[in-house]
Amino acid sequence: MVSTTQEGSTNPLTKLVAVTIAVIAAILVTFLITRPAATATSFTPLSGLITLKSMATEAMPYEDAISSPNPTLIEFYADWCTTCQGMATTMVDLHQQYGATINFVMLDIDDPQWATQVSDYGASGVPQFTLLDAHQNEIKTWVGKVPKPVFAHVFDQLG
Fold first, then answer.
1. At the N or C end, where does the chain have fewer CB atoms within 10 A?
2. Where is the Thioredoxin domain (predicted)?
């Protein structure tokens, strides 16, 4: 005869499964409660590409920048460049802080119309940031990921 009483399961495997589920649930709840809220500046590869494209659209045209009396920062970038995408929020912040006194220009190295500038400024890696003074003389060039304070220090010395 088969017993159908359920006074409580004493099977160790059943208890282990129940404890494991409880622990996973507790971890999940803790993660969901304590994770930081997503913000507009949180970085994902897609958000970096979107920000990069938006910045390129809103950047000062190269021709306007070189005829301006202000210093110019030229960013040589490529859409496929993950470092360029990662630098996008830094560049947005710098543009907001220094955009009134420094021209921010973005040139896509994959666009044939900028081949002369890529050659003239020796843009062999991306991102490359080339800072020109008010007379369009090269002051400084950085390649790769550059911390915001490095730019800020040089920009502050311009004024």
1. N
2. 31-159
